[in-house]
Structure formats: structure tokens, C-alpha cells
């Protein structure tokens, strides 16, 4: 009888867990519970955290795109080409960004634009991304034109490319806009090592 009770309780718990796990797919509309779980924009710290996260993603997108094109073309980009890349990041990538859903399918404060990650986007979420990208582009265009191409170092002997966007993220997101309060340190730097062959867009690390 006790074994039967345990089995029944286990089944009941499993059913509750499955019921709590929402079945969602791309394009689904958030329900009322998910809407309530969205970060509170009236909270200054919450808004700042959101801007910090998207700022890091945008800066890494910009630096990545510049170095990707230089790798593919096997030459340094002209200034006009870099400016075009910065504009394209703001005009195309921002609609892909959204807030990652947690294990209960509720929005978190973590950003992603990965197509395989369910995320809440649209409305004010997308507006934050678009506005942040516009601010970064308007305030730091010349800086990015100069610094972003230098964020990667190619080791010809090993045929590897090491990219470190940490200093750029720090200058723009921490010192510039004061959206991120975390001081620069080795653990906060974003560094990747990749071959000098063209890198597929899908291989880029998510935020």
C-alpha cells in the first residue's frame, strides 16, 4: 500500500511539473504569468542591468562582424565598410535579440539572439535593444572604427585568431554609459580563439 502511495505521489508530482512547463515555440504570445515575470522597468537597477547585458551583446556583435569580414576578405576593411557593418548590426540584429526564458518559460534578464533559444522579444524589449544600439553607434562610431578591428590578433604560425572584446566592452558599457558597474578584470573579459578560416555566424557564443 505504501509503495502504491509513493507511486501515486510521484505520478502526481510529475504531472504538476509537466503542467508548469509551458510548451512554447517561436512566435508564441506571452501569457499573463510571463508578462508579470518581465523585468520591472520602473526599477532603475533592473533597467540598468538590462542595458548592461544588451550593450555587451551589441559591442561583441559589432567587433565580431568586423573581424569576420576581414577574415573572409583577407584584408583590412576600409572605414566606410566598417561604418556599414555597424549600421547593419543596429538595423538587422536587434530584432533577433530577446530575453531568455527560464526553466519555467518565464523571461529572465539574460539576452540572446540565438535562433535555438526561446526568448521574449518585441515591444519594449526590442525597443531597449534598438535604442541601446543607436546610442552606441552615435556615441562611439569613431572609437569602434578604430578599436574593433584591433580586438583580434592572428598568430600566423598557429593559424589561429584570438579575439578579446573585453576592453571595448569596458570602455563603452562600463566607463562610457555606466550601464555596467562591474570593474574590468580578467574574468569579465570576453575572449575567443578561432581559426583564421571564415567563421560561421551560428558558431558565435551566446550571451
UniProtKB/TrEMBL annotation:
<protein>
    <recommendedName>
        <fullName>Saposin B-type domain-containing protein</fullName>
    </recommendedName>
</protein>
<feature type="compositionally biased region" description="Basic and acidic residues">
    <location>
        <begin position="197"/>
        <end position="207"/>
    </location>
</feature>
<keyword id="KW-0732">Signal</keyword>
<feature type="region of interest" description="Disordered">
    <location>
        <begin position="188"/>
        <end position="207"/>
    </location>
</feature>
<feature type="signal peptide">
    <location>
        <begin position="1"/>
        <end position="19"/>
    </location>
</feature>
